[in-house]
Specification:
This protein is α+β, with helices and mostly antiparallel strands. Among the domains are: about 250 residues, YVTN repeat-like/Quinoprotein amine dehydrogenase (Methylamine Dehydrogenase, Chain H); about 180 residues, Sandwich (Immunoglobulin-like). The chain has twelve helices and 43 strands. The strands form twelve sheets. Strands 6, 7, 8, 9 and 10 form a five-stranded antiparallel sheet that branches. A five-stranded mixed sheet has the order 36-43-42-38-39. A four-stranded antiparallel sheet has the order 1-33-32-31, with no helix packed on it. The structure holds 2-acetamido-2-deoxy-beta-D-glucopyranose (4 copies).
């Protein structure tokens, strides 16, 4: 029983330790899903893959993966059993040279395959970093049904401007009509950033090296988005962040941008030769309106997801941002309409007299054809024909070069983020969106990849009659056991699968696991997962075309009372929950855990004191506190012995989540049983492996893991080791003092937490700048 005592003390210590830095917050989904049904597709030969690029080929049912010195081809249904690989290391001389330039031969001086795109019906284009000598080559993958996979040796050529030199620096690329579009930094020192077009039959194009065009950019994505049915108006959109320097300060800030170029740009004839002549850029704003007109800006673009529409011209653009503020950490998702983006590009150009002036809207005459417009039927006038950008007057190109920036920024839908997260222990890096058809309409389900190997599945509900939204975390999937950043995610709606990549490998996760929500209609309903519905007997995948009679689903309200009245809404399930036994020492503190499955649920505690049959609600006071994670007894009394029930209430549906029999050990009993009272019996076996406490509740350590970030883990372990390993009496004293001190800070921690949102609001973020 001393083990139990140690366990709760440590639990508490750890929780409070965490509370000191940032408030602990368990954002558990309706169901805890640490044991996800995931199958890791592939971890590469010799256990290392160095995953960098992924191309999901639904036509061939194949997944192509680029890694460190290697390319893989996996058949989706049979995964690793049928993998083919191409070994593609850098040339020996290049490894040597890379090493001599001071790069790490184990990590940097390899060929990381970062570009992997379908090129034509039979080939993929792959480019790698080649130990700081980028290389490109075609990979033969054959026609559908064939399973060939080989590098075309004759096609290997230098890949400068097509692939970054570094293994991990941000960049973006895509293939459009046999040409490769890239946004990257092309030189060894990182001073030559640009937007490049290469391959194909036309001469290569790039941006001029000019800080007005691109200032230390970090590219995130590039996509072809047609304007209309005239292919001559097709444009490539680049999404990135860059530095801006305000007129009145030396400080620079980071802003997010969308830039575009015409696919049929051929550069100028005398001016801007082999340079983009149609390049324009605008600011992407994602901010939360604050008091006094000061908005909180999320300026660091992390990822872009295009939710394609049928016509292909107006995809909805989902963008994941984080803050660059040092005051608080947060992420936001904003959604942009193409119509709004086009309007900004059709609007005024930004202009300033000199770098010391403020930006304003350019009000002078804009030459014709308007810079940024593609040469097409639309630009042609009876007497002035523009077959290519080479026909554009020099005046147009001079103007384009001097005015790359649009004056107005692009605002998101409803002028506010769809989702804001400021309380997460991890940063969000990746975003994938699925629009799901449910009984009450369409819902957008967001999959957010973190930097700790996990994926959050969130549904955002648009409240009817207002722009307000409600978000529900449906699942938190720990895809990789190790907390590595998720670097890429691809969704297959056809297969209802999400492919998740990190430097450790590629995993696949099902989009929904309805069966885990439970076996009652109410549970299925409360989960509010738009993928799932109660079919009369079980919680199953919702199919819009399926039979309707017994189907129950209510995403908007999740109200089981309405949905499940006739479906045997449970509930006195007091007896069905497994009983835990917990021992506590009289006059000391103890903690009964209970975390509701849903963050929306309220918790009530009941106690049954034998021999009474009756259950009374637990009265909380100075001595007994109800916290987010359970019930804290600051000082146990003998009469606290009893069976404690933790019940949650959500939309009229109650459920018993935990049942704990608390035994209070009296001082007399303790004097006889606790070995450290004698001061000689060593607790050594525990000290070497503090985690393996026999009989300890399995969940408490996991909860600590949840509560604290990994940097704190060492401190917790040390803390626990101190607790468990101090067997000599004079050590015990300081330990108790420590515990008391920790307990005393409980209130402070709680107050601190309550005060936080307010404090956050008052922190002054940078002011919005127009462009
Ligand atoms: C995991 O999912 C696969 C199919 O995707 C299924 O065959 C398997 O039974 C599932 N395993 C568990 C433990 O749910
Ligand atoms: C695809 O491109 C490669 C490389 O240019 C070329 O060798 C091959 O013939 C092309 N295949 C088709 C079907 O056009
Ligand atoms: C629900 O109904 C089934 C059979 O219809 C029954 O066995 C079960 O006990 C019921 N559950 C509750 C909690 O009433
Ligand atoms: C097991 C344990 O730590 N018991 C302690 C409970 O608190 C009393 C008084 O604070 C101590 O004397 C016990 O040693």
């Amino acid at each position: 029983m001393r083990l139990w005592v140690s366990a709760w003390m440590c639990w508490l210590g750890a929780a409070l330790l965490a509370a000191g830095r940032s408030p602990p917050r368990l954002r558990l989904p309706y169901r805890e899903l640490l044991g996800t049904n995931r199958s890791v597709l592939f971890f590469g030969h010799r256990g290392f893959l160095g995953f960098r690029s992924l191309y999901l080929d639904e036509y061939r049912d194949r997944l192509f993966i680029g890694g460190k010195d290697v390319l893989y081809s996996l058949l989706l249904d049979r995964a690793s059993a049928d993998a083919k690989e191409i070994y593609w290391p850098p040339l020996p001389g290049q490894t040597e040279e890379c090493f001599q330039k001071g790069k790490d031969p184990r990590t940097d001086c390899a060929n990381y395959v970062r570009v992997l795109h379908p090129y034509n019906r039979t080939h993929l284009l792959a480019c790698g970093t080649g130990a700081f000598h980028p290389v490109c080559a075609f990979v033969y993958v054959g026609h559908r049904g064939e399973h060939t996979f080989s590098l075309e040796p004759a096609s290997v050529e230098p890949g400068r401007g097509r692939c970054p030199l570094e293994p991990s620096r941000a960049f973006a690329s895509t293939v459009i009509g046999g040409e490769l579009y890239t946004g990257l930094t092309a030189d060894f020192l990182g001073r030559d950033p640009g937007i490049f077009r290469s391959m194909g039959t036309r001469s290569a194009l790039r941006t001029e090296v000019d800080q007005r065009l691109l200032n230390d950019p970090k590219f995130v994505a590039v996509h072809l988005i047609p304007d209309n049915n005239d292919k001559d108006n097709d444009k490539a959109y680049f999404f990135f962040t860059e530095k801006v320097v305000e007129a009145d300060s030396k400080e620079h800030a980071i802003v997010s941008r969308v830039a575009r170029v015409c696919v049929n740009d051929a550069g100028g004839q005398r001016v801007l030769v082999n340079k983009w002549s149609t390049f324009n850029k605008a600011r992407l704003v994602c901010s939360v309106p604050g008091p006094g007109g000061i908005d909180t800006h999320f300026d660091e673009l992390e990822d872009i997801f295009l939710l394609r529409t049928k016509d292909g011209k107006s995809p909805e653009i989902y963008a994941l941002f984080s803050t660059v503020s040092h005051v608080f950490q947060g992420s936001a998702v904003c959604v942009y309409h193409m119509a709004d983006i086009r309007e900004v590009f059709n609007g005024p150009f930004a202009h300033r007299e000199s770098p010391h002036h403020q930006w304003g809207a350019y009000e002078g005459r804009v030459p014709y054809p308007r810079p940024g417009v593609c040469p097409s039927k639309t630009t042609n006038q009876p007497r002035r024909q523009f077959g290519t950008t080479k026909d554009f007057p020099d005046e147009v190109l001079h103007f384009a070069r001097a005015h790359p920036l649009m004056y107005k920024p692009v605002y998101p839908r409803h002028r506010r983020p769809l989702l804001v997260k400021t309380d997460l222990p991890h940063r969000l890096h990746q975003l994938v969106v699925d629009r799901v058809e449910a009984e009450d309409g369409q819902h957008d389900v967001l999959f957010l990849g973190t930097d700790a190997g996990s994926v959050l599945k969130v549904v955002v509900l648009q409240k009817t009659s207002s722009v307000a939204t409600e978000e529900i975390v449906l699942e938190e999937l720990q895809v990789f056991k190790v907390p590595v950043p998720i670097t890429q995610m691809e969704i297959s709606v056809k297969r209802q699968t999400l492919y998740v990549g990190s430097s450790l490998g590629v995993a696949q996760v099902r989009l929904h696991r309805c069966e885990t929500y439970g076996t009652a209609c109410a549970e299925c309903c409360l989960a509010r997962d738009p993928y799932c519905a109660w079919d009369g007997t079980a919680c199953t995948h919702y199919q819009p075309s399926g039979k309707r009679r017994h189907r129950r689903q209510d995403i908007r309200h999740g109200n089981p009372v309405h949905q499940c009245l006739d479906q045997n809404l449970t509930v006195d399930d007091f007896e069905s929950v497994e009983e835990k036994v917990l021992y506590g020492a009289e006059e000391n503190s103890t903690f009964l855990e209970c975390t509701p499955r849903s963050p929306q649920a309220t918790v009530q505690w009941f106690v049954q004191r034998p021999p009474d049959e009756q259950r009374d609600e637990v009265k909380t006071d100075e001595r007994i506190l109800q916290t987010e994670q359970g019930l804290l007894f600051r000082k146990l009394h003998r009469h606290d012995t009893g069976i404690y029930y933790c019940k949650t209430l959500e939309h009229g549906f109650t459920q018993t989540v935990a049942k704990t029999a608390l035994e209070v050990l009296t001082s007399e009993q303790l004097a006889r049983t606790v070995p450290w009272e004698r001061g000689d019996e060593p607790l050594r076996p525990l000290c070497s492996e503090p985690r393996l406490v026999p009989q300890a509740p399995k969940t408490w350590f996991k909860d600590i893991m949840h509560l604290i970030s990994s940097q704190n883990l060492r401190r917790v372990e040390e803390y626990c080791a101190r607790l468990w390993c101090s067997s000599r009496p004079h050590h015990r004293k300081s330990k108790l003092a420590h515990t008391k001190h920790a307990l005393a800070s409980v209130d402070v921690g709680r107050k601190g937490r309550a005060a936080k949102p307010h404090g956050e609001k008052n922190r002054v973020p940078r002011q919005a700048v127009a462009t």
